Amino acid sequence: MDTGRVSTGTESRPPVTYVPLSDAVLPAVDMSIPPWPGEDRTSGGVRMHIRVTPGPEDAPTAVYVHGLGGSATNWTDLAAQLSSRVPGISVDLPGFGRSEPQPGFDYSIAAHADAVARFIRGLGVGPVHLLGNSMGGAISMNVAADHPDLIRTLTLVSPAVPDLRPRFSRMSDPRLAIAYLPLIGASVRRRLAAVPVEQRVLQLLRLVFADVARVPQSRKDEAAAEFAERARQVWANPALARSTIGLFRSWLVPRSRSMWTLAPRITAPTLVVWGTDDKLVTVRKAPRTARLIPRARLLVLPRTGHVAQMERPATVARAVLGMWEQVDTGNW
């Protein structure tokens, strides 16, 4: 089981509250299990490819939203850890994974959030536990702020809050950071496409993990298969490029519409998780994010990168369960 320590740090004005981990006994993480079976489903007028994690029928549903360039498979291990408590639905956002986008979809954060909200509402399962990583975290913040009736709790793993000073020097290959920028990104993408797929997978893993040695060969093989599948999808590269632009635009809006202004409107109990070695969205944004969301608590994990739910699934699961337990007892 993952036993990564939790940093408690010190913050002031106002202080950040750090989340207690659950004492629940969880199964050992088995990263050899394949992704959960997938299916296309239409809900709320939105068609997406999803992966369903079985769980207790009388429990609330967890919905998992991946980040930029990711897919529903980013949640395989965390969903497995939580499956004894809740059933789960991991979505492929429009244009990602195996979700073919509907004509006219504009790939803005608002459009992605609207698609997720409509899909959740159409499920008819009541308020859900919503979990989002990176761009999926930004999308989930929008859903929670605009549709509070849909959200039971919110978990944000390195959410893509505005970070206008990315630290490219920490990246193993800075080309990955600029491949989807407007104008200059196209030529970089062409050069990256010529790199052998195994090397591209390793570059990506080095970007999002603090320690690539934690990634078993089975997961590397799955990532390589996804790379090959996306290369055959005519919508994949345009969706990634335009979603990247949509994310950057959400960072540059006037303050009145900023994500920092959105955060205080979130009323759901919220867990914010960040890795100290996040190369994409600096952990320096973690305390501010947790302070601005009224009912948020923070978990900072040492020696962890941008995808804590993949790198330390057991620790993140214990934190999520800790939140759920405290919410159930009225102590959050």
TrEMBL record:
Name of the protein in its database record: Pimeloyl-ACP methyl ester carboxylesterase
One cellular component (GO) term of this entry: membrane
PANTHER family on file: HYDROLASE, PUTATIVE (AFU_ORTHOLOGUE AFUA_2G14860)-RELATED, MONOACYLGLYCEROL LIPASE
Membrane-spanning segments: none
Residues of the AB hydrolase-1 domain: 63-313
Pfam name, any one: Abhydrolase_1
Secretion signal span: none
MF annotations from Gene Ontology: catalytic activity
Family annotation (SUPFAM superfamilies): alpha/beta-Hydrolases (SSF53474)
Native source organism of the sequence: Actinophytocola algeriensis
InterPro entries: AB_hydrolase_1, AB_hydrolase_fold, AB_hydrolase_sf
